[in-house]
Design goal:
By secondary structure, the chain is of the alpha/beta class. It has one domain: TIM Barrel (Alpha-Beta Barrel). Helices cover about 40% and strands about 15% of the residues. Helix 11 links the parallel strand 9 and strand 10. The longest helix has about 35 residues. The structure holds flavin mononucleotide (FMN).
Length: about 350
């Protein structure tokens, strides 16, 4: 099997593993320190079980949605992946092509190739740009202005990365992501100085929707709304930054309740299957971002493989909705879930049990 021929997501993950060196594989699946935040994301998702409603007409299931007026084929976002070009040479441009062909939004990382202006010139948007601050306010303002000028429809600040974490898989091997900084020696002095003043400055200077990525509590979410933030993104960076965080699915209800529907909420962290996405939507997220799924698909076969993976996720979402007795996203609600004890030992790939069984 090659490229985009897989029929299941575990086959995609297997292809990705075959295609990647140990360095690149560990960069993709690894987390910070003990990797407990990575495992907790999966543990959280596995701790919610469905309470389906029966005898509803599900002959037509609609998973389409929108974000700030941008129509989306399904409620999934492709999040920023730094150095994504190590998984497939086309990097952020390949992800952009898949997002455009399939019909979802991409958030492009500032630490991948090609750069944001080249991607914008080559692949039509809409698209969000995520920036790590590598310079002062003047430097940041220049980049935001250029992002607006070349057509980005959203600007994202990642606020869970004020310093770079200790990712032991990378440190132990001396692996340096090509467009990032060396994980144990990075200069994050500008990132470290991002504050609410930065948010106020961006909101007062620029007319582009602002996404704040890395929110984990209701208090911070409320403050974001008060500061005029346009989209709140619940994330622990896929367990790659602060170790021992809550699972993002468990932080989500508190954030949703604080936001009170005033702005859209995105969640990510451990979401690898359509049913995972449906759980996030039941608990009030508007979109779910899938980072390692994006990286695994890119490693399996670039843009066509990513389109194939999204198609499978879409099928999984629609199947889960139909079996829950819901035919449109508005019908997904907390009452369709309850807490349950996880059946599997959680780890970054435990969403693909057939991988372990060798199927
Ligand atoms: C290899 C890799 C690189 C990442 N690079 C970035 C980045 O440049 N900027 C950012 O905001 N988040 C980055 N993230 C975090 C993702 O955007 C997203 O929050 C996370 O992957 C979601 O968790 P999941 O991988 O469990 O789906 C990265 C994640 C991975 C796996």
């Amino acid at each position: 099997m090659s490229g985009a021929e897989f029929n299941t997501l575990h086959e995609m993950a297997k292809l990705a593993r075959e295609n990647l060196s140990d360095d690149h594989w560990d960069y993709l699946i690894g987390g910070a320190d003990t990797e407990s935040s990575v495992k907790r994301n999966r543990f959280g998702l596995d701790s919610w079980v469905f309470r389906p409603s029966v005898l509803n007409d599900v002959s037509e299931v609609d998973a389409g949605t929108e974000l700030l007026g941008v129509p989306l084929r399904m409620p999934v976002m492709l999040p920023p992946i730094g150095s994504v070009q190590v998984f497939e040479a086309g990097g952020g441009e390949s992800v952009a092509r898949a997002a455009e062909e399939f019909g979802v939004l991409q958030t492009l990382s500032s630490v991948c190739t090609p750069d944001f202006e080249e991607v914008a010139a080559k692949v039509p948007g809409p698209r969000v740009y995520q920036l790590y601050l590598m310079g002062d306010q003047g430097w940041m303002d220049d980049i935001i202005r250029r992002a607006v000028d070349c057509g980005y429809t959203g600007f994202c600040l990642t606020v869970d990365t004020q310093t770079y974490s200790r990712r032991e898989r990378d440190i132990a091997k001396g692996f340096v992501p090509p467009s990032g900084s060396r994980s144990d020696q990075a200069d994050f002095s500008y990132q470290a100085r991002i504050t609410w003043d930065t948010v106020a400055h961006i909101k007062s200077e620029f007319d582009i929707p602002l996404y704040i990525k890395g929110v984990n509590t209701g208090d911070d979410a409320r403050r974001c709304v008060e500061a005029g933030v346009d989209v709140i993104w619940v994330s622990n960076h896929g367990g790659r930054q602060l170790d021992h965080t809550r699972a993002c699915i468990d932080a989500l209800p508190e954030v949703v309740s604080a936001v009170e529907g005033r702005v859209p909420v995105i969640v990510d962290g451990g979401f690898l299957r359509g049913a995972d996405v449906v759980k996030g939507l039941c608990l009030g997220a508007d979109l779910v971002a899938m980072g390692r799924l994006e990286g695994l698909a890119m490693a399996a076969g670039g843009s066509p493989a990513l389109v194939r993976a999204l198609t499978i996720v879409e099928h999984e979402i629609r199947t889960s909705m139909a079996l829950l007795g819901v035919n449109e996203l508005a019908g997904l609600r907390p009452a369709l879930l309850e807490r349950g004890r996880p059946m599997v030992i959680p780890h970054v790939l435990s969403a693909f049990p057939l991988l372990e069984e060798g199927y």
